[in-house]
Amino acid sequence: MHSADRQTHPILCVVGARPNFMKIAPIMAAFGSGPHALPARLLHTGQHYDEAMNHQFFEELGIPRPDINLEVGSASHAVQTAEIMRRFEPVLDAEQPAAVLVVGDVNSTIACALVASKKGIPVIHVEAGLRSYDRAMPEEINRVLTDQISDLLFITERSARANLLREGIADERIHFVGNVMIDTLHHNLKRAVPAAQTLGRPVPGQGYAVLTLHRPSNVDHSDVLQSLLETVNGIALRIPVVFPLHPRTRAQIEKHGLGRLLDNPNLITLPPLGYLQMLGLMQQARLVLTDSGGIQEETTALGVPCITLRHNTERPITVDEGTNTVVGQDREKIMAAFAAVMDGSGKAGRIPEFWDGQASQRIAAFLHDWLGVE
Ligand code: UD1
């Protein structure tokens, strides 16, 4: 496509799974109005489809209704990725976008990037360059491959540039803009649902911990899942633990017959929460235990101590500058990090550079010039 044509064709923005929604919301808002408005359309692959995993986020975050929904649903990685690709190709032919914008590292990200790049349509990757260096994580494979075929790579922290340069990506394609997910956090803090409302009772005097678990490496193996839940029961002896359950985790607990480990009045299980409920719950928490990528960043932005139940993180700035401690799955290490937070010797942290609520405006300003929009 000649650069003159780019002005009149929209950018096709892609979302698929829950962690994409808080990233696309501020981008669509910046494209929709304001100084850097530009034509954009929204496509949902339908990777996540439940009310609690999907629709609620669109409403709360004011994301426009998708122009296109591929409705792929759940399947194995191969089938899900292939099905997104198969359904995305005719859409690209019909839409002829100026570029395809993908966010994060889910199967929808790589599937749509791959189809676009083979058709010669520029790919824009928001949240590029994060690396756990753990290829057992499906998201790591999605990140590495998406970055290889992206034309513009917007990064959230400076370490991402070094990762990308090491993989042979040209420096001029990489742009440090900050963290769009933290834009969403800034925009919504005032609207966060108070924890007492979500809990249906006053916040306990000694505070509470929040727990999230959904990574296959933590929940798909019964011995690992059992050990983690036993450790959490140990933590719940000292402080109530609030545990919103991802559908995958609920299914695995049932499959492995571990439901008895949830049978503890100090372990408060909840269904998957909406964004504003989760934000309020994290903001008021004494600490958060998680295997999520996004929550490591949100807790750093909120200044709430985070204990990451993984062996690595692709978001090292949350450890170097933020409130995050990466401990893995080992009971002793988790309990030691927990004790440090309870003693008040947890990490205070500071807000990383450009996590200031303006990342999407930086992206829109850049693309405005890049597209040559008048
Ligand atoms: C996906 C992302 C992961 C992200 C997570 C957040 C990939 C490779 N992984 O993992 O990076 O952190 O989303 O949630 O893309 N399910 C429902 N309803 C839904 C969606 C899923 O019940 O709306 C159940 C299904 O049983 C499904 C399982 O959850 O098989 C897993 O969903 P899937 O999208 O395959 O992966 P996630 O584990 O959610």
Features:
374 residues; alpha/beta; Rossmann fold; 2 domains; six-stranded parallel sheet; binds uridine-diphosphate-N-acetylglucosamine
Strand order of the largest sheet: 3-2-1-4-5-6-7
Beta-strand percentage range: 5-15%
User: Given the C-alpha coordinates, what overall shape results?
Assistant: globular
Please tally the β strands and state the result. 13
Rounded to an integer, what's the Rg over CA atoms?
A: 20 Å
Summing up helix and strand content along with how strands pair, one would put the structural category as alpha/beta
- H/I helix tally: 17
Describe this structure in words.
The protein has 2 domains: 3-178 and 355-370, Rossmann fold (3-Layer(aba) Sandwich), CATH 3.40.50.2000; 193-342, Rossmann fold. The protein contains 17 helices and 13 strands. It has helices at residues 3-6, 18-32, 51-61, 77-95, 107-118, 138-148, 159-166, 180-188, 195-199, 216-219, 222-235, 247-255, 275-283, 293-302, 317-320, 331-343, 359-371; strands at 11-15, 40-44, 68-69, 99-103, 123-126, 152-155, 174-176, 209-212, 241-244, 267-270, 287-290, 306-308, 324-326. A 7-stranded parallel sheet has the order 3-2-1-4-5-6-7, sandwiched between helices. Helix 7 (159-166) links the parallel strand 6 (152-155) and strand 7. The protein is globular. The mean pLDDT is 96. It binds uridine-diphosphate-N-acetylglucosamine (UD1).
Structure in a nutshell:
The protein has 374 residues and is an alpha/beta fold.
